[in-house]
Amino acid sequence: MSTPQWLPAWTRAEGAERVRALFAQTFADDGADGPVPGTPDGVWSAPGRVNLIGEHTDYNAGLCLPTALPHRTYVALRRREDDVVRIASAQTDEPWTVRLADVHPGAVHGWGSYVAGVAWALRDAGHNVRGFDAVIDSCVPFGASLSSSAAIECAFAVALDDVFGLGLGADDAGRAHLVAAARRAENEIAGAPTGGLDQSAALLCAQGQALLLDFRPGLDAAGFAQHVPFDLAAAGLNLLVIDTRAPHQLVDGQYADRRASCETAANYLGVRALREVAPADLDATLERLAPFDVEDSLRRRVRHVITEIARTGAFADLVRGGLGSGGTPDEAAAAGAGRLMDASHASLRDDYEVTVRETDLAVEASRAAGAIGARMTGGGFGGSTIALVRADEVEQVAAAVAAAFADAGLTAPAFLAAPPSAAAGRDV
Ligand code: GAF
């Protein structure tokens, strides 16, 4: 059997120490624009996320059910009085600099656009945000559909909120404004037409809880994001995350293509979003689309969205009803959750067509080795899968998946433990 490679999360103290050291090194000679050269105003961090279920539903006004990972992106930042942004990253040799006055849609490119975009969006919303010097370091794997981009955006959102005294970070209602800014950064400045799941998870999740997100327009903060206690470990279960290392990107055309199909179908059906189609009306709805859909792809996209929203509601009911709420493992609830995960993956593979060989293999190998359920998580086209596993079978499932990848001649996957962790916030 191949030995699984585990990707541990840094402790928050460790993450903070890393960015403080990098900040000192990057801005050591900068006595002119800081009271103490090489000293940041503070350290902030934001988590990656896994989505338990509810995929490609956010931009259809549907439901999603994420938890935050213990893996986080750390930012050490010092405010400036001018509008210059200077940033460096432990993950790249390319420092990045811009004047905030020059940031607008289409004008900036590269990794710094996720950072400058947040400052731009906050300023555009009327907040008095100025320039800053900052460094980042991260143990969220990049390009693994675990929201590394949102972790960057949201770590900066809470940092800028703090140093410029915006007062938005204290509760979910305030944080909704930070979610909006991070999302605009990604959509309008970085150019990825994503739906808001990732930024909401990074800013609103809580330790030991899953977050039920309802993307219907017009809901207040409490209606949009409900915290549901979720402690799999107490129920003798575990969530195993498998980064298949099949690279994934949201700025290429595939994600936008799926999103456009949903909008086209909603237009034909005369609804604002596919969420408005009741699951009981699914068959009749697909019939209505037939004349516009020679190749059947539009109907399959719609079927995925409608059934996935229903599966997410059912999964949330299982969590509310006791799955992962502690005490005796509830076999029936776990089996029900596993079936919903399996059905979600099949729908994403056959109807939405966003899985790849690596994610299908990770799911199949997880199940064959004893996982109760498994599915891809995130946008797809590569990236990661999750498996619901009995706690004493985690190593066996990981080893089996590693062996399946080795047998298939694929790059070795990486494994992450994923206890539901805390949202973005200040570390130091
Ligand atoms: C990506 C996007 F960023 C999210 O908005 C969401 O659509 C997800 O893919 C699919 O559920 O993570």
Task: Give an overview of the whole structure.
It holds the Pfam family GHMP_kinases_C. This is Galactokinase. Belongs to the GHMP kinase family. GalK subfamily. With 428 residues, this protein is an alpha+beta fold. It has two domains: 9-222, Ribosomal Protein S5, domain 2; 233-417, GHMP kinase, C-terminal domain (Alpha-Beta Plaits, 2-Layer Sandwich), CATH 3.30.70.890. It is 39% helix and 21% strand. It contains twelve helices and 14 strands. The chain has a six-stranded mixed beta sheet, sandwiched between helices. It has a five-stranded mixed beta sheet with strand order 1-13-10-12-11. It is globular, with a radius of gyration of 21 Å.
| Total count of helical runs of at least 4 residues | 12
Distance between the terminal alpha carbons, to the nearest Å?
Answer: 43 Å
Structural class label:
alpha+beta
Main sheet: strand order: 6-5-7-4-2-14
Question: How many domain regions?
Answer: 2
List of distinct ligands in this structure: 2-deoxy-2-fluoro-alpha-D-galactopyranose
Please mark out the parts with pLDDT under 50 across 5 or more consecutive residues, or reply none.
none
**Strand count, sense and closure of the main sheet?**
6 strands, mixed
Q: Quick one: CATH class of the largest domain? A: Alpha Beta
**Oligomeric state of this protein:** single chain
The count of DSSP E runs of length 2 or more, i.e. the number of strands, is 14
| Second-tier CATH architecture of the largest domain | 2-Layer Sandwich
Question: What pattern of helices and strands is seen along the backbone?
Answer: EHEEEEEHEHHHEHEEHHHHHEEHEE
- Under CATH, the topology of the largest domain can be stated as Ribosomal Protein S5, domain 2
User: C-alpha Rg, in Å?
Assistant: 21 Å
What average pLDDT do the residues reach?
Answer: 95
Shape: globular
- Which range best describes the helical content: under 10%, 10-25%, 25-40%, 40-55%, 55-70% or over 70%? 25-40%
β content, as a range? Answer: 15-25%
